[in-house]
Amino acid sequence: MIYLPNVSFSQNDTLSVSEPVSDTINTQAKDILKNDTISNDSVRTRKSENIIESKVIYDAKDSIVLSRDNKKVYLYKEASIEYGDVVLEADFIEYDQEKNVVFAMGMEDSTGTLVGKPVFTERTDKFEAKTIKYNFKTKKGYIEEVFTEEEQGYLHSEVTKKLDDNNFLMKNGKYTTCDNPEHPHFYLSMSKAKVIPGEKIISGYSYLVLEDLPLYFVGIPFGFFPSQQEQSSGIMIPAYGEDNSLGFFLRDGGYYFGISDKMDLSITGDFYSLGTWGTDLNYRFKKRYKFNSNLSASYKETVKSEQGLPDYFKSNDFQVRWSHSQDPKANPTSKFNASVNFSSSSYDKLHSRDVQNLSRNTKNSSISYSKNWPGTPFRLNADLRGSQNSKNNSVDLTLPVITFNMDRQYPFRRKNPTGSMKWYEDIEVKYSSKLENRLSTKDSLLFTETKFSDFRNGFQHDIPVSTNFKLLRYFNLSPQVKYTGIIYPNYINRYWDPNYYNESSDSYGKVITDTISEIKYAQLFEPSVSLSVGPNIYGMFRAKNPNAKIIALRHVVTPSASISYRPDMGDMISQYYGTYQIFQGGEYKEVEYSKFDNGLYRFPSAPGESGTVSLGLNNNLEMKVRSDEDTTATEKKIKLLESLRFSSGYDLFADSLHWSPITISGRTSILENKIRINFGASVDPYAINSKGKTYNEFEWNKNGKIGRMTRADFSLDFSFKSKKGESDKEQSSSTGRAGNRFDEDYYRNIEMAEYQEQIGTYVDFDIPWNFSANYKFVFSKPGHEKKVTQTLSLSGDFNLTPKWKISFRTNYDLSENELSTTSINIHRDLHCWEMRFSWIPVGLRQSYSFQINVKASTLKDFLKLPKRKSWYDNL
């Protein structure tokens, strides 16, 4: 034999050798090769058929031994052999050049541990084994104790045969999603199986082994485990179980269509034995650097009990959700976005997966398109908007609202100015227009009794021309002329009908309003002028002691005052107003009205001059202190009062009640914005009569008070998080569903009681604790009756241990002494398993859910132990 140091050879290399290799390793390898049957398939071919097409490149760290008699190459220590797409690595490799058969195995180190086990790689497929025998020509192999990864799962097998089509036949195999390769915490023991890499695993009888304890009663006669690495269509196996109120069920079963790597579609259904059923459609389309679109539609028919019984209940509900976001890089001049969430009034109450929806009364939807023209001041926006109120079942739609605007322009400015700016060069012109079509109705009438004539529509455009002058350094003089034009599709005509009998009041007479369908264009020029002043006044206090903790206090006071005046334009707009006489108090009185009172846009104002004076006072208080954390005595600024504002107004031409209410608002924060404080109040300077109506007498004259407090509110927000969570805030906030690849598990609806999973399916154990609270106090007394509401909201989570996470959310009405919208959740990380417990203790949604399941989506629906009490029992 010939011994060579670390060198590389190819199949085309020629070298004469005369002596065979005989040592312990070679003897062991020959015994294995002798007993294997694969050589019968691979060596009984003619010599011409054994010619391989690619070069065989081999290498070894320790040594390479070539035998001339049996035409074999022996590679020792970190050896590798490469043929085309196949790469085999091990501490010992024997290559039979005549039969094109390679054998690889590990070697024992000084402690008797087997190291350098064979690793086989072919294109993207890779696995590790105890021994490998492979034929380069037939592409068949024989493998002992293989270990490989298959799309969220791991395969173990005692004996494996590799077929020429790159599939595998396994005997006495294990399939698990536990990433502990030496000793998995659980696995499915498979008597036999066939593996089609990147597609599926098909097995015979399989049973669960948990912590080395075989559970023969948890078994299946055959198994099918998808392992697609690319989009692929297939059946979505439903979850099964029993609901106390709805009966036995099959839930979330259907079909998944992997249309392409850019779009997919799933259609699923729910069926209950007592009559409840539902279906869901989910469609997604994502085009890189273009847009991302998601559409889901759901229909549910819920039936409880039997017809004729007192507790019988039936509801038909639907929901449509669509979100579409355009990538900013797609088109810099136009943008299209959509956020639609529309449902029947009882859908959220019966089928919502989000606990926050239970306390939310309104839902908003919008579809918007915007366009701008580079190099021009013009912008176009078109929106479709919708709003739902689940409390009164009202629906408000705007279909559509279109705006076309021109940004501020200075038509008199010189292109190449020299010298000082002329006064007329500051004259600016803008343009804005809006077209709207609105509807307000009930959701039950929207698709049944709504007609186009029920919509209110109109068009309005404005052209303001204004400028600004500085007077006496602090005063701003702002004259303006504004042109407003409005198109109305109809107008009204009112008159008094003395012959109309009113049964409720047993009297005669009524104001009749006729609507005349005729397009009218109303226009108005509004000249106005305003004078305002708002200087900043600074007050400073500095400590005389150079070592004092508080270095300085600064108080900034900003008083503001403005007066505006608009002359009488009655001659121009009197044609848009009418009068009628009403018999009241034994005499006829003349009442003025606008002919466009029922229009979408209110006409700017009635005839007559107007003028208002606005007064305001804002305060800001800051403190500068020495930092305790810095030995160099670095200064730190603290905001004691971010804002404290007082404001009111005076109507110069009103008949009475000239002063508007005094409003007070303030805000501040402490502990580095961890605690936020907001407060406000409204004080009416006028007194009220016995009926609670305001009349023209000051409260000071009547009761010696500045005014009546009609409203006061106060809110306190706490938000605390562990230092670990604060340092990882940016990273944690970006954590979500990883990657762009669509996965089938996205469409798996969570169980009814597991609402908190929608709040955050990702449980971050790296944040030890997180707590937030909100207290809100509202006092209102517009008349003689007062009302006080107080609410307290708490939410947070904390790690009981590094693997236990407890989260909670609750709302408490202190005025009514009532607990509402409360949920408690417990999550336990069991490495490759997880445990979740969710409990809603109060309200209509009283329920609980307990489940232990495998984390991996491939086995999550099969290997789970659920227990729950549905909230449907509370209906």
Beta-strand proportion: over 45%
Tell me roughly what share of residues is in helical segments. under 10%
Please compute the radius of gyration using only Cα atoms.
40 Å
- Please tell me what the overall shape is: elongated
Return the structural class. mainly beta
Number of helices: 9
Task: Give the number of DSSP strands.
Answer: 55
| Model regions low in confidence, pLDDT < 50 over at least 5 residues | 1-50, 728-761
Quaternary structure: single chain
Biggest sheet features = 30 strands, antiparallel
- Kindly report how far apart the N and C termini lie: 88 Å
What's the average pLDDT? Answer: 82
What do you see in this structure?
With 875 residues, the chain is mainly β. 6% of the residues lie in helices and 57% in strands. It has a 30-stranded antiparallel sheet that branches. It has a six-stranded antiparallel barrel with strand order 5-6-11-12-10-9. A hairpin with an 8-residue loop joins strand 25 (291-304) and strand 26. It is elongated and about 125 Å long. Residues 1-50 and 728-761 have low confidence and may be disordered.
